[in-house]
Specification:
Length: 331
């Protein structure tokens, strides 16, 4: 079977390799040989975080993708992140080690249904979270990430009619903070909506001095309990600058690696999901990437992200607008 067929069937390249292969050093060699860069998200496994050239939240990774001089961008994250890299830097080759690394939140807004919704509200400006498909971005006026959403929404006049999609939790959080009444699409992330409030309160009884820190994709009832709310990078920064010693972390568990690395003397406790028997605070999509898949993606430069040029141009506009506003705001 040829490489393209393997990818078509599995969504990633699966080739038998010698058992003793040292992926870390092979990946470092390939980086130099190919002038390649690995952009990694905080939700990746610890070993992938360690070999990433840039590790960050969605905004930092999009900013880096737009300005990199690398010839090959290897995205250690999920599909919408790799697509965003291609949107802003179309001349670069972008590979995603496993094409099945999707996002339940992006999937909660199918483009045809979203288009209908937008057409039903022609007097509304469309603001879309970066966790969305390229087709949805093409229907959007400006994109946001959890790092700049409140500031970008606030940059619109108070009386401007706004649609926010796809995350209803982030949308309600922004409405509350900014005093807006944006029309919200009814989407959510399967990881962040699963945290259990009763179990979180039990944990808080056990660790009364722990501060609760949460990603704004969590449900509003949980966010009420949080001492700090923010993007992955904002949560990480908070744990570095705040002087508390214990934190209950309500977001995907991958971020705990950096928290523990930067603050080895502090205690980080993952917030509990509803179902005590599952590892539901792991994003199954983020966790599809492995060192082996990254090595193969770099070596064979597949699976590659490709986009129809007309669609790319339309979807790039709201991302470029977001990057421009963020730069003006110093974000
Ligand atoms: P951040 O941009 O805060 O890293 O969030 C990305 C994400 O997918 C959250 O689930
Ligand atoms: Fe998407 Fe949720 Fe995974 Fe983030 S954690 S990539 S929002 S499914």
């Amino acid at each position: 079977m040829d490489i393209n067929n393997i990818i078509k069937e599995k969504g990633f390249l699966d080739i038998d390799l010698p058992k003793d292969i040292d992926y870390k050093s092979e990946i470092e060699k390939l980086k130099k040989e190919k002038n390649a860069i690995i952009l990694g998200h905080y939700y990746q496994t610890d070993d992938i975080q360690e070999i990433s050239d840039i590790l960050g939240d969605s905004l930092a990774l999009a900013q880096e993708a737009a300005k990199t001089n690398a010839d090959l961008i290897v995205f250690a994250g999920v599909h919408f992140m790799a697509e965003t890299a291609k949107l802003v830097n179309p001349m670069k080759k972008v590979v995603l080690p496993d094409l099945n690394a999707g996002c339940s939140l992006a999937d909660s807004a199918p483009a045809d249904q979203f288009e209908k919704f937008v057409k039903e509200h022609p007097d509304h400006t469309v603001i879309t979270y970066i966790n969305s498909s390229t087709e949805v971005k093409a229907l959007t006026d400006v994109c946001v990430t959890s790092s700049n959403a409140v500031q970008i929404v606030n940059s619109f006049p108070k009386d401007e009619k706004l649609i926010f999609a796809p995350d209803k939790n982030l949308g309600s959080y922004i409405n509350k903070i900014s005093g807006r009444n944006m029309l919200l699409w009814d989407g959510a992330c399967h990881v962040h909506k699963e945290f259990s409030i009763p179990r979180l309160l039990e944990l808080k009884k056990e660790y009364p001095n722990a501060k609760i820190i949460a990603h704004p994709e969590c449900q509003s009832d949980l966010l009420i309990l949080a001492d700090h709310i923010g993007s992955t990078s904002s949560l990480l920064k908070f744990t570095q600058t705040d002087n508390n010693e214990q934190y209950i972390v309500a977001t995907e568990s991958g971020i705990l690696h950096q928290m523990r690395k930067f603050s080895p003397n502090k205690h980080f406790i993952p917030a509990p999901p509803e179902d005590s028997t599952c590892a539901c605070n792991d994003c199954v999509f983020m966790k599809l990437n492995t060192l082996k898949k990254i090595y193969l993606a770099m070596k064979y430069e597949v699976p590659e992200i490709t986009l129809d040029e007309e669609l790319r141009k339309r979807a790039a506009k709201p991302i470029e607008r977001m990057l421009e506003i963020s730069a003006n705001l110093g974000l």
